[in-house]
Specification:
The chain is α+β, with helices and mostly antiparallel strands. It has twelve helices and nine strands. 68% of the residues lie in helices and 12% in strands. The strands form three sheets. Strands 6, 7, 8 and 9 form a four-stranded antiparallel sheet that branches. The protein has a three-stranded antiparallel sheet with strand order 3-2-5, covered by helices on one side. It has a two-stranded antiparallel ribbon with strand order 1-4. α2 packs across α4, α5 packs antiparallel against α6 and α5 packs parallel to α7.
């Protein structure tokens, strides 16, 4: 009886007396009638050059390196390895041929179902497929692929497919480089034009903003001037209220002059702002027109150069012609975008000018409101000085505004040219005789009728009815 111990990367495979099949252990007693074998578990690298053929019947060589060893994480796989592979050295020709046969068989079968382009471009997927199919075959031997490294495909002597493919790739890369250089040059020129367009747009925007700020400051200055003048006027009105009777005429003239001056200043500022907005609009129109003409001339010259280049290079292939056509289309689109940007800038400038005019209008309205408030304060001050007597305030304002003179002049003009007629009628003394009793009142009424009917006739030409009365003077005139 012997005590045996396996190394860190080993197992003891014991058979014989008392053991039905095989017993694997790291350490164990070996009794008489039993045999043991040390199984090395370390993986081994196998290097092959597998020859295969693609679906197009193109042969190739696939260099590969596989790291293969026993599966140590599964006891059933270890038993299979101990039964089938324990007699052979892992470096022996038998094991090498066994592994190589499995790998070559699966690789050739897989390669026959794929084109050369699929194998070359899908190296990762090809490696995965080979790995999985080879692993399925090695499972029956208890072996595991720890690592698989598939190198680049190599041409078989007499079949230079990859060599020709490399030359083709180099030529395509050179041609693509030329196309990229032309594309970069085109983008650079287009970018320069876009920068110029943006510069013009930003300049127009800055000019419009400067115009707005200038108008705002002008309006603020006018407002401040109006406020100062209003304060001065209020101070004058307060002082003049104490001597209102002696200086009424002077205060009226000062108010009229101040109002005329303020209105003249507002109208002057408004005219200047309108003229500046009109001039700025004309400048923006000229700039936009110049930019459009310049861009049109450049596009036409560039199109002419491209046309001559295409005529001289008529032997270019279809791919380059398509690229040239796409470049022309792209430039046309950029030209349209540049024109749109210029139109937007012009619209923005007009909009800003309109806003500036609206702002000036608002400031003018604020000045008029401030003046009205000053007049209201002036009237309140007068009313307080007069002790709250509205009648005296009305009379003072009528005197101040010369309303009594105007009323008198209007009344004089109304009665000018009138020729009134005055009729005097007398009944003599007969009225005194009939003044007694109830008939006195009736006699008085009848005494009023003759002059009344005569006056109506003279003013309107109407005669009383014959049954009522007859005017003697009118009768004689008609006869």
């Amino acid at each position: 009886m012997i005590w045996k111990t396996a190394g860190a990367s080993e197992y003891l495979a014991i058979t014989g007396w008392g053991i039905t099949d095989i017993r694997l252990a790291k350490k164990s007693w070996v009794f008489p009638g039993q045999r043991y074998t040390r199984l090395d578990m370390s993986p081994v690298n196998y290097t092959f050059e597998v020859q295969g053929m693609s679906a197009e019947k193109l042969p190739f060589v696939l260099p590969a390196v596989f790291t293969i060893g026993p599966r140590v994480d599964n006891m059933d796989s270890l038993l299979l390895y101990a039964k089938l592979m324990s007699k052979h050295d892992k470096r022996s020709k038998h094991v090498d041929e066994l592994v190589q046969g499995v790998i070559e068989g699966e690789t050739r079968v897989l390669a026959a179902s794929m084109t050369m382009e699929q194998i070359f471009k899908g190296t990762k997927e090809f490696k995965k497929e080979v790995f999985e199919k080879v692993q399925l075959e090695l499972n029956q031997f208890g072996l595991l692929i720890y690592n698989a490294n598939v190198k680049q495909l190599v041409d078989v002597p007499g079949h230079e497919y990859f060599s020709y493919l490399g030359q083709k790739t180099q030529m395509e890369a050179a041609n693509q480089a030329k196309i990229d250089v032309a594309e970069a040059k085109k983008k650079g020129e287009i970018g320069a034009k876009e920068r110029q367009g943006l510069t013009s747009q930003n300049a127009a925007k800055i000019d419009a903003e400067t115009k707005i700020i200038t108008t705002q400051r002008l309006g603020d200055a006018q407002k401040e001037e109006i406020n100062v003048k209003t304060s001065v006027e209020l101070y004058k009105n307060q002082k003049e209220a104490e001597l209102v009777k002696s200086k009424a005429e002077l205060a009226t003239k000062n108010a009229g002059w101040s109002q005329a001056s303020q209105l003249a200043e507002v109208e002057s500022a408004k005219a200047v702002a309108i003229r500046e907005a009109e001039l700025q609009t004309e400048v923006e129109k000229k700039k936009a027109l110049n930019q459009t003409e310049k861009l049109r001339a450049e596009l036409l010259s560039k199109a002419a150069v491209e046309y001559e280049t295409k005529v001289q290079e008529a032997n270019w292939d279809l791919y380059k012609k398509q690229k040239a056509a796409e470049a022309v289309l792209y430039e046309a689109q950029k030209a349209a975008e540049a024109q749109k940007v210029s139109a937007d800038a012009n619209f923005y400038a007009r909009q800003q000018a309109a806003e500036s005019e609206l702002y000036a209008k608002k400031k003018e309205a604020e000045g008029i409101t401030a003046l009205a408030q000053a007049e209201g304060f002036y009237l309140n001050t007068l009313l307080k000085q007069l002790g709250g007597n509205y009648i005296e305030l009305r009379d003072y304002m009528m005197l101040n505004k010369n309303m009594y003179q105007d009323i008198a002049r209007i009344n004089a003009q109304a009665v000018n040219g009138m020729q009134p007629k005055i009729s005097v009628w007398s009944n003599g003394k007969g009225s005194e005789d009939g003044a007694n009793g109830a008939m006195k009142d009736v006699a008085g009424v009848y005494s009023m009728l003759p002059p009344l009917l005569k006056t109506v006739h003279e003013q309107t030409g109407m005669l009383p009815p014959a049954w009522l009365a007859t005017l003697s003077d009118v009768t004689h005139e008609s006869n």
